[in-house]
Design a protein that fits this description.
This protein has 72 residues and is mostly helical. It has 1 helix and no strands.
Length: 72
């Protein structure tokens, strides 16, 4: 069995790895959410049909996925 100090260092490394992983996950989620929010607000100002982010709005029907629209 390792010494108290070795165990403490090991535990500290484990916690920091968990913390880094959680931070990375949160950062990815936040960037995905902010991208969607920006995309949504831009779509309301400048309606661009995009099947990935359908916005329910009767003025701009959601494009049919069988006929994909290519945007340049």
């Amino acid at each position: 069995m390792g010494s108290f100090r070795e165990n403490k260092k090991k535990r500290s490394r484990q916690l920091s790895a968990i913390s880094l992983s959680a931070t990375r996950t949160l950062r990815e989620q936040l960037s995905a959410i902010s991208y969607q929010l920006i995309r949504r607000s831009l779509c309301h100002r400048f309606p661009i049909p995009d099947s990935r982010f359908p916005i329910p709005d009767s003025r701009f029907p959601i494009p049919d996925s069988r006929f994909p629209i290519t945007l340049f």
